[in-house]
């Protein structure tokens, strides 16, 4: 094992990356704002690729505009393209919000997007122009997750403003599925609290079939709620690793939206790992109880009870199994803690993210019980592939990109996170809370049972 | 419900254009043409998409790495740039490959990237690139490595070609670079051209070992989506034609090195690969003809063309025998299906040739193509090669190198004499000719280049075709409008659709699509009523 680590650490190239690029994360957040059209400022290829990737996961229309740089633009700057792009997006969509993300190209030539926005606004003074949100997202400074959190922060920092006090609870739920977001909203509704979930792409990226085609799908966090975030009674933030981009490049004032609101508008912030597993979900429900002064509704308490019951019944299938977990850092972190809770040992936890804090966080959450666990960030799939044989895993947990390794080892893989393009219904998967944990637990147990059944010389029907 | 089919195309066009800002409308008007029956009208194509208008198009790099080099298994494709560009092109096209043995090199499932970081952007990435090449060599010992530049690379001025030369000398394997930065051209098309150039310069003709075979051909512009190449290989083998190389479905660099031994080049996708055919003709004397193996009749026609070219009675007889045998099976399947597909309507917006080729299959099903267009075609793909001299060269096209080719001093060998060629032309076999999509489309059909998202919505809304063909990016948008979308890039994970067996697969899939009742359930019963009310209210 030692050897494997030494050998792979020296690699310069990334072989089968375990991360996506920054403007993809930004686009996701923009899709979670009501009435928003994303525009990627750079060459058209990036926008096309990002659309393609999001569409194959969510199976929904995803409109993302591009300012379509040419060689000439790279020399003389993107001002003209920017204005034409915005004009056309306004004309075709009449959006309330335009979210602008930069690319490696526009960042390399040093495009000053805030200035472009200012100039555009000056040029169109007196007109009703959309709200602009800008996120700086060069991929050579971070992955899709950095782009995601950067965009959440810049949306809040540019829109939130102080006004009358409100009872709103801000929930910054991180990169979870549309079904997860709907579930959070259901929980908050059941508590009877006022809340904002941001970003909320639960409708925009998982639409019902429409009666009439919607140019901009309905749903998304209303701008008014983001503005009101400054007056909220509290913020809850999922994820403890979050945003490398901000921590390395931006001011040290705040790394996340929750932190920013706390520093600038005194909104108390509670940060917690993504609530996967009973313990982590308890933290979330407890926090809601504390903030609202309302006890957890019976309906959810019973869901918890059923989950405990399932843990007891399913224990024999999972205990002592060895897992390999990969994906976004915060997702991996919470997944490892959940697996620890149900008695599965994670032998390798990996992510393409580059926070350098994954190991520290995992140790903290699992009380340092797994000194032999290999934890790597800045990791690619080939590195995993080279290490797995000796690790003798029983199960893989992660996105579709790791399928080829599981296939080579003939071991089951439970698909979570993003991207999932070789299974149906990724948008409807739950990961968090008692319900999400239940679903995950069932899927993991069944994957292990199925494996056992298929490899048994006797075709057991009771297992 | 289908009465909308009779919608006047000119009226559609006028209505759609009014929604654009006037400058945009003026530009788009030239790319939307109502087809005339006899005389082909001019269409504007291969010009930059207007910023802010959502397009189907990808970038130059996508065309170079993803399309042309993507399906070749014995080359390591190293993407020099930040991570996204490489990740997004990682096995996203559904080309298949079949290495002869388990140990044969196959690197298609890998995505290698230099994953540029801040410091590489600031200080240059050449050192990192060299190191990455050494590593790729260490791990896999490949015989070939290709380096693909993405947008930021062009700007910071890394010289991938110099690095390639240096590493080629150091490692003793074939290494070459592609300056295919995404912004270079208006679409994937520029990337095809760049790929053609580099493959021609660095690979074709490297191996002079003679190739056995009486009728030796190359197939160009076939990418083995859904196993198309396997079906075509089956047919060629059956009739006794030696396929030296396919550019680039189920292909190897090894086979490209031998391509100059062929006596005929057959072009499927004219857009992506005609440059290679032209250059091979100039350098080695291999003539090219346009073929199409999409559609059973089209396949038969193309096979006959090959037989005609070789002028061998035995081959001609064998071709007829195979056609008779295969067509009998095809006809049997088609008979029962056609009753359900007859007179249905289709639209297709894909690629640089598929939007043309698939009209054949729909014709066979008795279906009418109401509208079609390319994502990255040029005027010659619409109007025919005769218009090439009149195409204006703009800044974007000038960006792409035109390499100067001369006849090879020792290996140039005309395959036919002038007189033979002339005789064949007189019999109807056309060399170096592609007549384009519009000549074969009906009068009144709408031809739309680089269709925008908005135009697509309007087409679906106002014409309600029975099936709309495009790609994954369009799929869920069209289906939300209650019209089924068939993907012609990935085939919706079906296929093969080429050749005879492929045709039958396609008939069945389209039958399934146009006969399914799910589309009737799109509206819930309570919605149906309210819709009627709404319509009356109007
Ligand atoms: S950066 Fe350039 S090469 Fe990469 S995807 Fe975008 S347009 Fe294509
Ligand atoms: S250039 Fe940057 S933003 Fe564009 S696809 Fe590549 S990594 Fe992503």
Mean pLDDT of chain A: 93
Supply the helix-strand structural class of chain A: alpha/beta
Radius of gyration of chain A: 22 Å
Structural class per helix/strand content of chain B?
Answer: alpha/beta
**Uncertain segments of chain B:** 1-5, 529-538
The named CATH superfamily of the domain at 216-340 and 378-426 in chain B: Nitrogenase molybdenum iron protein domain
| Overall spatial form of chain A | globular
CATH architecture assignment name of the largest domain in chain A: 3-Layer(aba) Sandwich
Averaged pLDDT of chain B, please? 92
The best one-word shape of chain B is globular
Strand content of chain A: 5-15%
Please work out how many helical segments of chain A DSSP would assign: 19
Arrangement of strands in the largest sheet of chain B:
1-12-11-10-13-14
Oligomer: heterodimer
Q: Give me the CATH fold name of the domain at 216-340 and 378-426 in chain B.
A: Rossmann fold
Describe the structure.
Helix content of chain A is 47%, strand content 13%. Chain A is built from 19 helices and 14 strands. In chain A, the strands form three sheets. In chain A, strands 12-11-10-13-14 form a five-stranded parallel β-sheet, with helices on both faces. In chain A, helix 3 links the parallel strand 2 and strand 3. Chain A starts with a helix and ends in a 9-residue tail after the last helix. With 538 residues, chain B is of the alpha/beta class. Among the domains of chain B are: 125 residues, 3-Layer(aba) Sandwich (Rossmann fold), CATH 3.40.50.1980; 174 residues, Nitrogenase molybdenum iron protein domain (Rossmann fold, 3-Layer(aba) Sandwich), CATH 3.40.50.1980. In chain B, helix 15 links the parallel strand 10 and strand 11. Chain B is globular and about 70 Å long. At the A-B interface, strand 1, helix 2, helix 3, strand 3 and helix 4 of A face helix 3, helix 4, strand 3, helix 5 and helix 6 of B. Strand 1 of chain A pairs antiparallel with strand 3 of chain B. Bound molecules: iron/sulfur cluster (2 copies).
């Amino acid at each position: 094992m030692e050897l494997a680590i030494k050998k792979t650490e020296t690699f310069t190239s990334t072989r089968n990356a375990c991360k996506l690029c920054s403007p993809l994360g930004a686009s996701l957040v923009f899709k979670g704002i009501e009435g928003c059209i994303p525009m990627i400022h750079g060459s058209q290829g990036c926008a096309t690729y990002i659309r393609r990737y999001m569409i194959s996961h969510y199976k929904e229309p995803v409109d993302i505009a591009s300012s379509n740089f040419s060689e000439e633009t790279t020399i003389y700057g993107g001002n003209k393209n920017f204005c034409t792009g915005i004009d056309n997006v306004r004309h075709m969509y009449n959006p309330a919000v335009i979210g602008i993300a930069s690319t490696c190209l526009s960042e390399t030539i040093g495009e000053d997007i805030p200035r472009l926005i200012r100039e555009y606004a000056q040029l169109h003074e007196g007109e009703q122009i959309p709200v602009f949100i800008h996120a700086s997202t060069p991929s050579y400074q971070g992955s899709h997750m950095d782009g995601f959190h950067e965009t959440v922060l810049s949306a809040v920092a540019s829109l939130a403003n102080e006004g009358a006090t409100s009872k709103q609870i801000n929930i910054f739920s991180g990169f979870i599925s549309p079904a997860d977001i709907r579930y959070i909203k259901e929980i908050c509704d059941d508590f009877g609290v006022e809340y904002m979930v941001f970003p909320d792409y639960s409708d925009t990226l998982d639409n019902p079939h429409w009666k009439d085609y919607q140019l901009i799908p309905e749903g998304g966090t209303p701008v008014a709620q983001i503005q009101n975030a400054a007056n909220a009674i509290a913020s809850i933030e999922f994820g403890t690793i979050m945003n490398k981009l901000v921590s390395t490049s931006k001011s040290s004032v705040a790394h996340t939206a929750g932190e920013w609101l706390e520093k600038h508008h005194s909104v108390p912030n509670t940060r917690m790992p993504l609530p996967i597993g009973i313990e982590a979900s308890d933290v979330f429900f407890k926090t809601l109880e504390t903030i609202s002064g309302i006890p957890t509704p019976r309906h959810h308490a019973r869901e918890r009870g059923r989950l405990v019951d399932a843990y007891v019944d399913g224990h024999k299938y999972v205990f002592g199994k060895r897992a390999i977990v990969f994906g976004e850092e915060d997702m991996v972190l919470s997944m490892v803690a959940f697996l620890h809770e149900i008695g599965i040992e994670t032998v390798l936890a990996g992510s393409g993210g580059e926070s350098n804090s994954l190991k520290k966080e995992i140790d903290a959450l699992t009380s340092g019980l797994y000194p032999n666990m290999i934890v790597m960030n800045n990791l690619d799939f080939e590195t995993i592939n080279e290490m797995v044989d000796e690790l003798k895993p029983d199960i893989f947990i992660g996105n579709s990109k790791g399928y080829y390794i599981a296939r080579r080892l003939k071991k089951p893989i439970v698909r979570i996170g993003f991207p999932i393009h070789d299974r149906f219904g990724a948008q409807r998967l739950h990961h968090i809370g008692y319900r999400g944990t239940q679903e995950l637990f069932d899927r993991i147990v069944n994957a292990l049972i199925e494996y056992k059944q298929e490899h048994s010389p006797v075709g057991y029907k009771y297992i | 419900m289908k009465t909308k089919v009779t919608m006047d195309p000119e009226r559609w066009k006028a209505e759609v254009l009014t929604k654009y800002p006037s400058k945009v409308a003026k530009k788009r008007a030239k790319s939307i043409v109502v087809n005339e029956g006899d005389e082909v009208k001019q269409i504007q194509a291969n010009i930059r998409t207007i910023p802010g208008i959502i397009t189907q198009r990808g970038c130059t790099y996508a065309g170079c790495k993803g399309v042309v080099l993507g399906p070749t298994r014995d080359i390591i494709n190293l993407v020099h740039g930040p991570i996204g560009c490489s990740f997004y092109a990682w096995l996203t096209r559904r080309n298949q490959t079949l290495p002869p043995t388990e140990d044969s090199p196959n690197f298609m499932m890998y995505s290698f990237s230099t994953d540029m970081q801040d410091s590489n952007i600031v200080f240059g990435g050449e050192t990192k690139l060299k190191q990455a090449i050494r590593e790729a060599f260490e791990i896999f010992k490949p015989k070939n490595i290709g380096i693909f530049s993405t947008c930021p690379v062009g700007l910071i001025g890394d010289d991938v070609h110099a690095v390639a030369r240096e590493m080629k000398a150091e490692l003793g394997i074939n290494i070459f670079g592609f300056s295919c930065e995404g912004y270079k051209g208006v679409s994937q098309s520029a990337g095809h051209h760049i790929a053609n150039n580099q493959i021609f310069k660095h690979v074709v003709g490297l191996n002079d070992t003679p190739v056995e075979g009486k009728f030796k051909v190359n197939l160009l512009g076939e990418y083995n989506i859904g196993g198309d190449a396997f079906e075509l290989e089956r047919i060629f083998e059956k009739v006794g034609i030696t396929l030296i190389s396919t550019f680039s479905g189920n292909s190897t660099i090894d086979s490209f090195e031998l391509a100059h031994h062929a006596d005929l080049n057959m072009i499927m996708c004219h857009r992506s690969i005609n440059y290679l055919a032209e250059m091979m003709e100039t350098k080695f004397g291999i003539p090219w003809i346009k073929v199409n193996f999409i559609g059973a009749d089209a396949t038969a026609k193309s096979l006959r063309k090959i037989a005609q070219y070789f002028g061998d009675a035995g081959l001609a007889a064998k071709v007829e025998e195979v056609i008779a045998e295969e067509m009998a099976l095809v006809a049997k399947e088609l008979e029962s299906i056609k009753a359900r597909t007859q007179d249905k309507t289709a639209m297709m917006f894909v690629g640089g040739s598929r939007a043309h080729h698939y009209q054949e299959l729909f014709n066979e099903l008795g279906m009418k193509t109401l509208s079609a267009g390319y994502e990255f075609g040029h005027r010659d793909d619409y109007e025919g090669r005769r218009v090439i001299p009149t195409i204006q060269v703009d800044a974007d096209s000038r960006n792409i190198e035109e390499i100067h080719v001369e006849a090879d001093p020792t290996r140039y060998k005309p395959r036919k004499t002038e007189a033979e060629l002339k005789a064949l032309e007189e019999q109807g076999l056309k060399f170096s000719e592609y007549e384009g999509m519009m000549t074969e489309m009906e009068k009144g059909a709408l031809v739309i280049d680089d269709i925008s998202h908005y135009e697509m919505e309007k087409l679906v809304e106002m014409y309600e075709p029975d099936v709309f063909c495009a790609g994954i990016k369009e799929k869920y948008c069209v289906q939300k409008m209650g019209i089924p979308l068939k993907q012609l890039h990935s085939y919706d994970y079906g296929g093969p659709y080429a050749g005879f067996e492929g045709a039958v697969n396609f008939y069945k899939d389209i039958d399934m699509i146009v006969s399914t009742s799910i589309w009737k359930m799109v509206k819930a019963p309570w919605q149906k009523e309210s819709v009627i009310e709404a319509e009356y209210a109007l």
